[in-house]
Amino acid sequence: MDASDPVNGLIKMTSTLDFLDDENSLPETPDKIPHFPIIAKILSDKTLNNNAIKSTLLKAWGISPKTPANVIEQNTIVFLLEREIDCRGIERQSPWSFRGNLIVTRPWLPEEALDEVDLSKFQIWVQAYGLPVMYVNKKLAEKIGNAIGSFIEADLATESHR
């Protein structure tokens, strides 16, 4: 028997499979997701120690050191968090860094394939010091934010500066 026979047999058996576009052909998804995956990508040309990255981030995030974490490529790790609130907290407190390298974090939504997760953008806080009081307002904050990227929100020092 030639080595390609099993492969050709498999191809022949699967060539008649047909996937329909209706929802009934898809497997049912569970109501509750057991984990909340978040992807962390360290932006560095250097190969970093994945175990050090894992332990440092889990400690910084205040998450159990027993949290499952899988390296999906060099300097990119998926953490399987138990609570959605932890995932949101990590995103809210971003950006993060590891040994001076920026870390892009993004929740991995259940309906996304891994290659659909956009790690090319990240949120940063910008602080503008020394502005005259008359310029401390949301309108100028939006102008500064949009000049850098896409404005998200302003955290003004006092209520009177709206």
TrEMBL record:
InterPro entries in the cross-refs: At4g02000-like, DUF4283
Highest taxon in the source lineage: Eukaryota
Domain DUF4283: 38-115
Protein name: DUF4283 domain-containing protein
